[in-house]
Amino acid sequence: MCDNQSSQLKTKVVVIDYGMGNTWSVLSALKYIGIDGELSNDKNKISNADCLILPGVGSFKKGVINLKKLDIFKLIINEVSEKNKKILGICLGFQLLGISSTEDGFQEGLNLIPARVEKFEISNKNLKIPHVGFNSVNYDKNDVLFKNLKTNNDFYFVHSYRFINKPLSGSISTCNYGQEFIATYHKENIFGTQFHP
To answer: Of 5, 17, 22, 68, which has fewest CB within 10 angstroms of its CB?
Structure first.
């Protein structure tokens, strides 16, 4: 997604701080792979970043409220849609990139991914909601999100809501937990993972 080694200039990565993310884990992961990330909700820093990461844990409604309260909801849409800035949504951050969610009634999302977030509907009583734990993901090994990974990896999920697997333009991977859902999405400058990478 954002690679410091692809350019002589240092890539500016901003992890968006809206009070809903496991931001320490994201910053630690960036540091581990040699990328300097900055945690911020400052509008100027978001506008001047090369790449944005929107992590998240918790309620879709609260996430939208927090982004709007910080006056960065429309800014994120503009940076990604108009300026083609790269964004990676993680877990709740991935869901917030969608059109809407049924969590806590109908809530509009950032509308960067043309899909809706809905609660799991699982008939298998042995499967508990939230979906918590490691699961296999079916992905195309050529997808940039899985570059340099071996096949048959497991990824860690914690969620009660998901994007239903349906045809979307762009690249998706899927996971099956009582029903198939979208585990990752990638199209042009928009990236998302339901799992925690």
So the answer is: 5
Whether omega before 130 lies within 30 degrees of 0, making that bond cis, reads yes
Pairwise CA distance, residues 53 & 27, whole Å: 10
C-alpha span between 129 and 56 (Å, rounded): 18
**pLDDT exceeding 70 applies to what percent of the chain?**
94
What whole-number distance in Å separates Cα of residue 52 and Cα of residue 13? Answer: 6
The CA-to-CA distance between both ends of the chain, in Å, stands at 13
Buried b (16+ CB within 10 A) or exposed e, 68-98: eebebbebbbebbeeeebbbbbbbbbbbbbb
The pLDDT > 90 percentage for the chain reads: 71
Task: Give me the count of residues in the chain.
Answer: 197
Compute how many other C-beta atoms are within 10 angstroms of the C-beta atom of residue 151: 9
Stated pTM of the model:
0.91
Beta-bridge partners for 161: 119
pLDDT tens digit sequence for 18-67: 999 789 999 999 999 899 899 999 999 999 999 999 999 999 999 999 99
Look up residue 48 and give its DSSP letter.
H
